[in-house]
């Protein structure tokens, strides 16, 4: 709707007095508003500012507005009532904050459209006479708060202070539920970290936080027991901080491991647990029933009540519990929002007796959460969302398992790629999105920033645009720190799934640069190739120091400590390797050899960096940095130096060869030997379940081999050997290895006789599974 302007005697249309500043772009605003454009010249922030507010002004919005004005040049901020502007108001910046329907705000907004939508707002900056003024009108209290969050991003530096960009906005969220679910396994966040997260969610206009840490004993294992007094006090403080940021603290209790659905005492204990948080101010509640068995009951009474365990019986028991909580607790508690739940079948599109029972019997008010077409889905489409909505008989609420890093394929990883591959238009098909973050809360902000951006305005969302803004937020807007974070985040870009293929690649920018390097190098433009890549290698080496320089949030530097340590070493190894290549190209073989040795030593130090003590369930692990890209480049460069005088250089010969193996796990084609040399880090070979399995590559032609690389999956070897052969019959043991983890191994070969076959011969498995390798590289040079 449009809120009409005041009568001409009271106020004129403020937009008519000034023309847009020619060629001046507005600062970027995140989340991306539905409508934001320039409406005139910038307004100067005067040393004294008037804020016009009354009892209908949201206190949190008013407090944040005063904070931002003070931080951007206002020495004094006076709060006055509408109609009570002092005679000295002329010449002072005046900011009107409150409901968009308040007459003075409506007049100042002029023709700015005010959304008729929960959490919507309108904003207008007017730099004309008799004084500059800003109107911030919300359709509700949250809308007022979000108007201030947009204004916060419109301050621009001036020669002698600050201005506010002359903007006009009409904005509202596309999805009603936006935020995070602390639902990971492993060390939960600390109280201080959670408080910081609430402030962050307010900044990015996220309105939902679901408290569901798997390893909080009172959330899951001890769900019937009341929280201790000190923990309850912390939760109360967290509810207050969330409320101050217009975040709905959603309290989750996960009773599925031990509940007796038919036992009235269990239901009484569950409701008492919810009541304790209601008394602290929580008004949103969730009962997750994920990661539990529906093939057994926890009590004999459930067999009598619901029959033999199974999908339909489990759904009937769960529906009976959920409907009871919705109807006798939620519906009877003032202000309580509809109950949320996570089904046991939360990550697929298969119609089953479980889902049929849910859609037929679950109270329509209950909100169902869904993780996508897999636990970690590579994409979520509108078609998928429609399909699952049909299966559950309602729009679902997406629990998005990105950037969570609590599963095996994320071992040793920070996940800093942008929020991506969720289809525009999902707001028409789902009720919202919450991202499940990492055990590292500050590092999680990169992806959560994007998820909030997407949920606010999915049709305008661009991962490419949002990602650097997220990084800039962490860097406090500092340009050098932002650039350093982007370099670092590129090296932590891998986004695995539970399957073999990651849904976002590792180090795409570095991969592009190293590919360009080898193309130029092989074309003979070697000096320029080294110069171009060395600049980026130096940026990699220097990024950790810049990130730790003070501009970036301290919490992020703590979260990322081992990865920053490793990055500095990897960057130095890369710079040194490039200098070795340059020295060899200049004919200085002695210096090249010395630098090569130094680079290999640095690589060893980088591989030795461990995430320890870890916050994650995967335990102490190598801090992975640009793996499969940075380390592969260094191996290839080292081989080129060692085989400098061999015709053809030292490229990876494996992709042109033919892979065979002693066995394939369950004879699955997706684990066939050909995947070990297909050049794709997301596919893999896996063997049968015995120690003496092997995989080999028959090269396209005999070659002198200088190095073999093995990118292990989590099913790796405790001990193995590298065998070589000229004829496939007579074999030589070229190396024996006993690695201390499942990482990428680089095995250097010193023999100078040409071979045709290279084999990984297993000696001892690390797990009860077989051996599994993503990629096997064979670096060397063919011989005539």
From TrEMBL:
Entry keyword S-adenosyl-L-methionine: no
InterPro entries referenced in this protein's UniProt entry, alphabetically: FA58C (IPR000421), Galactose-bd-like_sf (IPR008979), GH (IPR017853), Glycosyl_Hydrolase_84 (IPR051822), Hex-like_dom2 (IPR029018), HEX_bac_N (IPR015882), NagJ-like_helical (IPR049019), O-GlcNAcase_cat (IPR011496)
Chain positions covered by the region annotation Disordered: 12-40
Keyword annotations of the record: Glycosidase, Hydrolase
Keyword Protein biosynthesis: no
Entry annotation: catalytic residues: 291
Low complexity: bias regions: 12-27
Residue span(s) of domain GH84: 176-459
Domain F5/8 type C intervals: 641-781
Family indicated by similarity: Belongs to the glycosyl hydrolase 84 family.
PANTHER family (alphabetical): O-GLCNACASE, PROTEIN O-GLCNACASE
Protein name listed in UniProt: Beta-N-acetylglucosaminidase domain-containing protein
Originating organism: Streptomyces peucetius
């Amino acid at each position: 709707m449009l809120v009409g302007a005041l009568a001409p005697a009271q106020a004129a249309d403020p937009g008519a007095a000034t023309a847009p500043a020619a060629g001046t772009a507005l600062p970027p605003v995140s989340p991306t508003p539905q409508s934001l454009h320039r409406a005139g010249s910038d307004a100067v922030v005067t040393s004294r500012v008037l804020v016009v507010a009354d009892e209908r002004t949201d206190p949190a919005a008013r407090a944040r507005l005063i904070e931002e004005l003070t931080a951007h040049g206002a020495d004094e901020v006076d709060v006055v009532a509408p109609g009570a502007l002092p005679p000295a108001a002329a010449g002072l910046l005046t900011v009107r904050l409150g409901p968009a329907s308040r007459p003075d705000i409506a007049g100042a907004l002029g023709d700015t459209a005010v959304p008729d939508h929960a959490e919507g707002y309108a904003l207008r900056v007017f730099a004309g006479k008799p004084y500059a003024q800003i109107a911030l009108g919300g359709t509700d209290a949250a809308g007022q708060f979000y108007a201030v969050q947009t204004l916060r991003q419109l301050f621009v530096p001036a020669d002698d202070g600050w201005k506010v960009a002359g903007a006009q906005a009409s904005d509202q969220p596309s999805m009603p539920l936006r935020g995070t679910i602390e639902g990971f396994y492993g060390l939960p966040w600390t109280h201080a970290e959670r408080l910081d997260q609430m402030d962050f969610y307010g900044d990015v206009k996220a309105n939902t936080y679901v408290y569901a840490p798997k390893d909080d004993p009172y959330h899951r294992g001890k769900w019937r027991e009341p929280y201790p007094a000190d923990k309850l006090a912390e939760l109360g403080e967290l509810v207050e901080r969330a409320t101050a940021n217009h975040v709905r603290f959603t309290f989750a209790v996960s009773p599925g491991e031990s509940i007796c659905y038919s036992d009235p005492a269990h239901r009484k204990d569950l409701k008492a647990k919810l009541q304790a948080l209601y008394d602290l101010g929580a008004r949103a509640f969730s009962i997750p029933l994920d990661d539990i068995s529906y093939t057994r009951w926890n009590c004999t009474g459930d067999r009598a009540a619901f029959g033999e365990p199974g999908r339909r019986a489990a759904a009937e028991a769960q529906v009976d519990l959920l409907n009871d909580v919705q109807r006798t607790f939620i519906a009877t508690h003032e202000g309580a929002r509809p109950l949320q739940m996570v089904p046991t079948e939360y990550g697929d599109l298969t119609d089953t007796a479980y889902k049929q029972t849910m859609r037929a019997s679950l109270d329509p008010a209950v909100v169902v959460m869904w993780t996508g077409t897999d636990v970690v889905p590579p994409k979520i489409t509108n078609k998928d969302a429609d399909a699952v909505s049909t299966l559950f008989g309602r729009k679902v609420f997406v629990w998005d398992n990105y950037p969570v890093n609590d599963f095996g394929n994320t071992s040793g990883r920070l996940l800093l790629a942008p929020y991506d591959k969720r289809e525009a238009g999902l707001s028409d098909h789902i009720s919202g999105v919450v991202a499940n973050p990492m055990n590292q809360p500050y590092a999680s902000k990169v992806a959560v920033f994007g998820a909030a951006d997407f949920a606010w305005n999915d049709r305008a969302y661009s991962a490419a645009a949002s990602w650097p803004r997220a990084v800039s937020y962490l860097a406090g807007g500092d340009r050098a720190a932002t650039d350093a974070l982007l370099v670092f985040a590129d090296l932590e870009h891998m986004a695995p799934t539970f399957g073999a293929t990651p849904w976002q690649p590792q180090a795409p920018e570095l991969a592009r640069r190293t590919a360009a390097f080898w193309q130029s190098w092989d074309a003979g433009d070697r000096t320029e190739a080294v110069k171009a890549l060395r600049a980026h290698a130096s940026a990699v080496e220097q990024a950790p120091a810049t990130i730790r320089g003070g501009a970036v949030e301290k919490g992020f530097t703590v979260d990322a400590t081992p990865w920053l340590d490793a990055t500095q070493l990897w960057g130095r190894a890369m710079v040194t390797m490039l200098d070795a290549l340059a020295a060899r190209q200049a004919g200085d073989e002695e210096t090249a050899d010395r630098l090569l040795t130094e680079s290999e030593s640095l690589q060893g130090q980088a591989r030795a960096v461990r995430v320890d003590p870890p916050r994650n369930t995967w335990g102490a692990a190598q801090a992975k940095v640009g793996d499969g890209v940075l380390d592969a480049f260094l191996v290839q460069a080292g081989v080129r130096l060692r085989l400098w005088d061999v015709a053809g250089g030292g490229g990876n010969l494996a992709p042109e060869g033919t892979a065979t193996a002693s066995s394939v796990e369950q004879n699955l084609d997706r684990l066939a030997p050909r995947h070990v040399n297909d050049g794709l880090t997301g596919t893999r070979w896996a063997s049968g379940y015995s120690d003496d399995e092997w995989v080999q590559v028959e090269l396209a032609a005999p070659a002198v081999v200088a190095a073999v690389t093995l990118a292990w999956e989590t099913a790796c070897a405790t001990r193995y050997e590298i065998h070589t052969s000229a004829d496939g019959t007579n074999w030589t043991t070229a190396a024996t290895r006993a690695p201390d983890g499942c990482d990428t191994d680089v095995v250097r070969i010193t023999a100078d006789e040409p071979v045709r076959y290279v084999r990984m011969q297993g000696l001892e498995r690390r797990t009860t599974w077989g051996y599994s390798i993503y990629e096997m590289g064979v670096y060397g040079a063919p011989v005539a």
